[in-house]
Amino acid sequence: MGDKKQNTMDTLIWVLTAIGLGAGLAMDACAVSMSNGLANPKMKLDKVFTIAGFFGVFQIIMPIFGYLAVTVLSAALGEKFTTIFSYLVPWIALILLLILGIKMLVEGIKEDKNNKKEKDNTEETVKNLTIGGLFIQAIATSIDALSVGVIYGNVVPLEAYLTFLIVGIVTFGISVAAVFIGKKFGTIFSNKATIAGGIILCAIGLEIFFTHWNDVVAGINAIFNLF
After folding, report:
1. For residue 162, is pLDDT > 80?
2. Exposed/middle/buried for 224, CB within 10 Å: 0-12, 13-18, 19+?
3. Phi, psi (deg, nearest 5) at residue 212
């Protein structure tokens, strides 16, 4: 009886930990989802779920990549592979998010200069949010999840994969809510919302980069040590 209670408690703690981990990792996806809603206040429901689906799926895929990198690829290619991998993570996130953010800023500034009056432009705003753009956003905002996969390298596969699944589900739910919040404020602020969305993307890229500053410095030192 005692063992059953202990097992139940351990399972509950594991699930709550996975949910908390998912909520923490989802913050970047949440902010970007909100910026998408800001830029597309007339976005249809299917697009909302597409955005959330992209972020949720990539929050599952990325830690799996990290997990496989530390368990399979490191065994085959050596620990240097994992080390080099960690050096590249902040640079990838910074470059991708700055590209997207600056693009949104330029579009928002052009729109503001032209002083366009609000009209029925649903098709235009939906076109701006392409699958390719979502793909890049999803990769950039799930970069942190790679390191989680590495951390879980000593966990049995079933527990690790279930944890990653919960992270993805939590991210999906948070992203749906964030898009709707963004849509609401996007309607209020009109063309200023695109500029705000661009600033958010750039800020997230910088935040990820400086959060991983130790890896950035270590990577630069490693390059200089080669010469």
Report:
1. yes
2. exposed
3. -100, 30
Residue 205's pLDDT band, with cuts at 50, 70 and 90, is confident
Give Cβ neighbours of residue 24 (< 8 Å, ≥ 6 apart): none
User: Which of 132-148 are b and which e, b meaning 16 or more Cβ less than 10 Å from the residue's Cβ?
Assistant: eebeebbbbbbbbbbbb
Share of the chain above pLDDT 90, in %: 17
Q: Among candidates 212, 48, 50, which has minimal Cα distance to 144? A: 212
Amino acid in position 215: D
Distance, in Å, from the CA atom of 16 to the CA atom of 227, rounded to the nearest integer, reads 48
In terms of Cβ atoms closer than 10 Å to its own Cβ (0-12, 13-18, 19+), residue 173 is: middle
Secondary structure element (H or E) that encloses residue 51, with its range: helix 45-68
Q: For residue 16, is pLDDT > 50?
A: yes
What is the CB neighbour count within 10 angstroms for residue 189?
14
